[in-house]
User: Fold these one by one.
Assistant:
Number 1:
Amino acid sequence: MTDYVVATIVSVLLLGGALFAFVAALGLIRLPDLYTRMHAASKAGTVGSGLLLLAAGIESGDVAVFVRALAGFVFFILTAPVAAHLLARAAHITGYRLVSLSVRDDLLGR
């Protein structure tokens, strides 16, 4: 019974992670400018890779491997959005323009 529960949890995490990774990939292809693409990659990509990492940690059956996978997931959650924000700010400072569909630019006068 326990093997089926673990297999079900791992399957759900793998499917969820794959779905988020797919949405991130679609965002990179379909979104119009650097800022929206970066948003899709940082948010959906972080959640997708984190779910896949947790699935691998659970499937391993080893507590030490699971703790490392959990630490990696926390590291993803803490660092990817900050890195994306800094890259977007650097792109804005260097003059990369927003797409014409954007409503406003809050950093325009800075």
Number 2:
Amino acid sequence: MTKERPSVSISPWAALAAGLLVYYSDGKTLFLLVLPIAVHESGHWLCLRLLGCRIRALRWELSGLCIRYTGDPGRLGQAAAALAGPIAGLLYAWIAARFGSTGELSAGISLLLSAFNLIPAFPLDGGRAAEALLSRPSASYISLLSAIIVAGLGLVLFARGEGAALLIAGAILLAAQYRQEISSAMSPD
């Protein structure tokens, strides 16, 4: 009996982002960025496997790795799988911080990735956990409010000359809220 492997694909936007990252980064910087991302995504994968789910497809999107699986982990299992990535990232950061300045840089990237993903806004892990644990209207409200707060804070920081990264992240989260509402309105319950 042969083991069926999950299909793997990458969206055009994720491919473009990856290409730009490879082009503009040296090998060390790329490694210090990719390793925390790999640990984060492995946390999701491992949790789903421990919950008895079978991984069917992996698709790298601009917002991260989308994991398609079969099996029903239940609402608590879905929340656990969503939070497993940031938890793995926090554990990685704790370990990496003990390896000098290079490890500290990678730990910082992992902490930033984990903290950002814990924001309860869709499509982030915090938003997916909220969606699994709360009613859909409550999760949608929290997600929209979180996206507005991130965008507002980003606007304040941008106005103070602190850069546009958080403002761009907030705009992307607001766009995701809009897309989520449109797809929810179009899908039958």
Number 3:
Amino acid sequence: MDTTQQRVHDAGLGLRRSFLNQIVAAPPPEVSFYEIAPENWITIGGKFGKQFRALTERFDFICHGLSLSLGSTDPLDERFVQDIKRFMHEHQVKLYSEHLSYCSKDGHLYDLMPIPFTEEAVAHVAARIRRVQDILEQKIAIENVSYYAAPGQEMAEIDFFNAVVDAADCEVLIDINNIYVNSVNHGYDAEAFLKAIPAKRIAYAHIAGHYVEADDFLVDTHGAEIIDPVWKLLGKAYELYGVFPTLLERDFNIPAMDELMREVNTIKTIQNAWQQQHARQSA
């Protein structure tokens, strides 16, 4: 992996308003960067706005979009992309990322829906990503998503993902938990998927917990502790590609800050282990 293009470093945390006061009052030293959904912050003023500004002046931030709906057949919301561009400039945000999915059809669906794995969809989505990058005047990172059905599937998930990012010439947000969840739900080898990711395009990673509905059905909730097989898959990713920035996502059932920092520190421990091993091998 080419780390010279990394905009952020080490371990990050998804910023949530429920613990904003704690972060402002005592920023945890374990966290090197934060990620926010711009839809939740772009119009914020008052106390929250001042607190957010205080953080963006001190720390690196990434925007992770929820509503751009890259796979939709609705017209691309270019006005929203322009708003994102201004917001990123105002707060010196390092990167914008989005999901390889869609969430609108003549109006918002309020969920991330799977794009059909077809050549037609590759061309459609890649063109929309390129347009977003043209407006923002920078590359964006696209996330591999969890999905529970594959309508109209003509190719494997990894082949579809790689075809889109290649045609769009964009970067990759690699979600480790999504790879694990999909591997269980759809019966593929998680490490084989990981090995096929275009390493030079990796900008950063997500890691999160999930809900076990059944032995063969997992739900990507971001509402539980990360399990050991997912941590091991992160370690495998570092083994394959070197250490890249990795962010903890927790969206509900949010625990105390000490518990969040325990998982952030686990990211850092795995990162340090692979860096030390690489240093020994290089000596």
Number 4:
Amino acid sequence: MIDPSALMGPLWTLLAFVGLGWIAARRLAIDPRPIATLLIYLIAPLTFFRGLVLGGPTPQYLLLTAALFCLASLVAIAVNPIARRFFAPQESAVLAFSSGTGNTGYFGLPVAMVLLPPEGVTLYLFCLLGITLYEFTVGFYISARGQFSVRESLAKIVRLPLIYAFVAALAVSGFGIDLPDALMDSLTVFPATYTLLGMMIIGMTLGRVTIREFDLRFIIGCVAVRYGLWPLLSLAAVLLLQVWLPVSTELALALLLLGVVPMAANVVVVAMELGIKPEKGAMAVLATTLAAPLLIPFYLQGLMRLVGL
């Protein structure tokens, strides 16, 4: 059985960060846009680089990363034309981007550390890396296309340092390069900073939202994809793997957890950087995060029964 109390620690911590961001916007008039730029171009790449180097990538682990990258990309590509039929270009771009990702890091990782043994956490981390890679490549392109041309969108992706951080981490591991301990120790501050600023941006954005910007139809669309489509996808992935391969309990639970986390905070970060309706993204992220303690235990228990765990 999944204990709902295991989710309360991560939830209240994230909501506290959102509250700090709201206070910063309302009382200190802080502009979140430079913070979004800092996250995308500095903090995220260094966090990603550190995690990949410390994880000790193997071909099996990288296969998980590639599989989740492909799955996230295919979902976003499939949702994009559907979203364009019901929403304006900017809203549809945000919805399409969010459809391929979730709060697998800020929220999902602390939960994974409670529910999974160390081997399961490692499997979860490499799945998470695939989704993060999607966010800053295919997802970023789809978001940019809500406002920019194909050439401009591709140019923005080429400038993203996270791609180069991924290649550099693979080179370091592949060539067996030992980085200085002082360097790796200095990078330990970035994961916590990434989480803090990423969630504070949601609060900063909400602090500037008026009631006229509340879009129930958009929120329903985001919730339907996150808590409707993704649990089914994670269930199908585990069932298909069980047909072809012996799937460990740790891998099955890691995949199921990826399918039931709330919307990604990076939806707001990317929307802020590109100027495509970050306010609507922030409201949808907050709605799915508040629903998480009720829905995740229900979903996980049901999905675990269906896959025989």
